Amino acid sequence: VPAAPAPAEPSAPSLAEVANSPRVAAAAAQTIRVDLDKLDRLVNLVGELVITQAMLAQRLSENEMGSIPELSDLDHLTRELQDSTMAIRAQPMKTVFSRVPRIIRELEVETGKRVRLEVEGEMTEVDKTVVERIGEPLTHLIRNAVDHGLETPADRKAVGKDGEGVVTLSAAHQSGRIVITVADDGRGIDRARVKAKAIERGIIAPDAQLSEEEIDNLIFAPGFSTAAVVSNISGRGVGMDVVRKNIQALGGRIGIQSELGKGSSFSLSLPLTLAVLDGMIVTVGDQTFVIPLTHIVESLRPGIDEVHFVGGQSPLLDVRGTYVPVHRVGEQLGVGGATRQPEDAVLIVVESDQGQAVLMVDSIQDQRQVVVKSLEANYRAIHGLAGATILGDGRVALILDVDALIGRWRRDGRNGGAFIEDLAA
């Protein structure tokens, strides 16, 4: 009896069969590709909806129509739509963090140091624009941590450390912002050396009395470097000043914590999106401005004994024992009709990378979320202004770039209205 033929081996499914299988089709149905231009248009339209809703609320308020439940529902739905739209643009920081291991390997070869990279929070999401623009400053900080921060294996062992240095890169959401931290367990900032180098370069006066925070911030001065030898990594006087400028351009701030012999930590605090911000609406003369809430520490009407005048310099506000310079926003931005006496004005204590300052305004009108309109796209970039917004009553309010303004005031030491003449310089 002839043997029965062996059953045929099942053939492998074709690519077409795999692609059309129910499992693959179900997975594909969960995602859809959208052109970025269409997404940007959606974001802009939602922004216009937010502005229109604010205008409607303003008109009803002016007509004393009282509380309308449907308007409250509209506000809630508009906010939810806005948040959902922004979430579509969000990307994980992994997009940027994934490039860092290669940078570390290259630096190990260039410096002869041993480095272990630790990454945390790489799936933390932030707006696509922030992800695209954070790469360059992050690269500068990584290179700085390895070259300036970490010691050579021999030097580390001599002080009782492991020969392999550690660089930690992390990201986390904090108070409606994203905080990205680059830390190392290296030598820390030698503040005496930093101050000496700043004096040598004429950045500060020899008799300048600076706090530790102010000394740390000297490393952001243009052209500043403590490197003894110029290399492909350090000593060219570029890098850290670029980092701060790029972070400020994103509406962010950079902070430093360092302990000699134990290491340093650089923290970047950035908005989750550049399309909206929470701001305080203030008036200065006949103009309206927006101050981002992330910069505001407190606001007050000062007593006569709280403001001090020293020579021809800016007034100083006594903030719990610390004297903080008062800047007359109207005078320095060339706005007519602004209050000139601090005791008749509202003083807003703000904080930037370069310390605290006080902005003198006429009044505080409101606190609200505003849609940011780019000046560069609609007019031209103006130093000291981060953008503009349209308020509920149809007025255009300029958004103050607090970091840029304080930096310019400190650098120039100006107190006069001539400041506005070169805002666009």
TrEMBL record:
Catalytic activity: ATP + protein L-histidine = ADP + protein N-phospho-L-histidine
GO molecular function: ATP binding; phosphorelay sensor kinase activity
SMART domains on file: CheW, H-kinase_dim, HATPase_c
Keywords recorded for this protein, A-Z: ATP-binding, Chemotaxis, Kinase, Nucleotide-binding, Phosphoprotein, Transferase, Two-component regulatory system
Domain of life, source organism: Bacteria
Biological process according to GO: chemotaxis
SUPFAM superfamilies in the record: ATPase domain of HSP90 chaperone/DNA topoisomerase II/histidine kinase (SSF55874), CheW-like (SSF50341), Homodimeric domain of signal transducing histidine kinase (SSF47384)
UniProt EC number: 2.7.13.3
Keyword S-adenosyl-L-methionine: no
InterPro entries for this protein: Bact_Chemotaxis_CheA (IPR051315), CheA-like_dim (IPR004105), CheA-like_homodim_sf (IPR037006), CheW-like_dom_sf (IPR036061), CheW-lke_dom (IPR002545), HATPase_C_sf (IPR036890), HATPase_dom (IPR003594), His_kinase_dom (IPR005467)
Kinase is among the record's keywords: yes
Protein name: Chemotaxis protein CheA
Organism name: Sphingomonas paucimobilis
